[in-house]
Task: inverse folding
């Protein structure tokens, strides 16, 4: 795929999957749909079971938050990322005045994105100091992942050109909320019929929707390595900052991991709230689609929806609490190993284990403040 990129008027951005001269895919390619052993995990697979027509069209959309700081990137790195100056200094969720202050920056960014074929649906201030969010119209899964990846590149480059710095860390600050990548998902058939909607069902949730939701929850623990792929991811997921809570779901409930929203056929969908802004969109959408499809294939039934605060429930023991546990859950999963080649699964396990080992060997500010003059 080729696009006129937002980085430069003379820059042509190309996205694709890498292969060896033999045409076999490499293990490191970032667009994994072609690497699946089973088409059930492919972003481009069109046929789903349990639907009235053989062709089904998935409609995911990502909502991506980030922090924007007044500091220039080079100075920040030289100073160890200290003395951060956030672009907003008070909680500014949906505040017009704070957003207007930086409208010249975002107006140029939106224009660059539109020139690259990425239409912005909404942009807003978020709750965290210096936190922002932009959302896009939903689309084909692989196209959505391409937009997501190009968007992150555009935001970072636009920030650098403006003398600022953007970060998509899941949780860059101790005293501020993390940044999410909420994934909205719905399913239609080739004729446009909304397969998640049922006129007669409770809350209008069809059996297909309930089973798809159940599949996502069922396989969340083994795919946490993709949904939360960094050490920092678990700073967000282990907090109580509406970043998902075990294998839970509810109706318009932001404390659960899956939130069902919409009251009309064209709006009914579920929002998967566990991935952070640091997630790889290709891997996250592949895992989400494979899990939802498996739920429909197996006719899975979700648990009862959570009413009230999901964080008041006991912690789900199946959910990994750090990257090493997540890597082991991923590599030992029969479901994962049934979808991907053994070499691919091991490739990801080795990468994650290396990240964890590197983290354990590093001396952090936390170590110094906790132990330096107390041990």
Result:
């Amino acid at each position: 795929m080729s696009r006129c990129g937002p980085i430069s008027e003379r820059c042509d951005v190309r996205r694709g999957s890498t292969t060896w001269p033999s045409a076999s895919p490499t293990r490191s390619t970032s667009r994994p749909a072609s690497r699946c052993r089973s088409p059930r995990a492919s972003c481009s697979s069109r046929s789903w079971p349990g639907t009235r027509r053989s062709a089904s069209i998935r409609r995911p959309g990502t909502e991506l938050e980030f922090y924007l700081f007044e500091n220039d990137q080079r100075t920040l790195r030289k100073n160890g990322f200290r003395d951060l100056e956030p672009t907003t200094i008070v909680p500014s969720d949906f505040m017009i005045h704070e957003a207007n202050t930086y409208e010249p920056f975002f107006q140029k960014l939106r224009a660059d994105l539109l020139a690259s074929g990425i239409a912005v649906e909404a942009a807003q201030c978020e709750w965290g100091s210096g936190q922002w969010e932009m959302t896009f119209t939903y689309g084909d899964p692989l196209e959505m992942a391409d937009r997501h990846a190009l968007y992150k590149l555009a935001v970072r480059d636009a920030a650098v050109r403006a003398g600022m710095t953007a970060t998509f860390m899941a949780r860059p600050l101790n005293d501020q909320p993390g940044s999410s990548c909420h994934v909205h998902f719905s399913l239609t058939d080739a004729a446009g019929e909304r397969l998640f909607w049922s006129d007669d069902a409770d809350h209008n949730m069809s059996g297909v929707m309930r089973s798809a939701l159940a599949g996502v929850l069922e396989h969340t623990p083994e795919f946490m390595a993709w949904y939360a792929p960094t050490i920092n991811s678990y700073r967000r997921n282990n907090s109580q900052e509406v970043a998902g809570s075990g294998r839970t779901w509810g109706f318009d409930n932001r404390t659960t991991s899956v939130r069902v929203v919409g009251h009309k056929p064209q709006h009914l969908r579920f929002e998967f709230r566990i991935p952070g802004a640091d997630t790889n969109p290709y891997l996250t959408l592949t895992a989400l689609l494979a899990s939802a499809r498996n739920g429909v294939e197996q006719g899975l039934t979700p648990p009862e929806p959570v009413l009230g605060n999901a964080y008041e429930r006991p912690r789900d023991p199946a959910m990994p609490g750090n990257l090493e546990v997540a890597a082991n859950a991923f590599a030992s999963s029969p479901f994962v190993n049934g979808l991907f080649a053994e070499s691919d699964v091991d490739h990801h396990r080795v990468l994650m284990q290396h990240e964890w080992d590197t983290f354990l060997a590093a001396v952090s500010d936390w170590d110094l403040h906790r132990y330096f003059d107390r041990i």
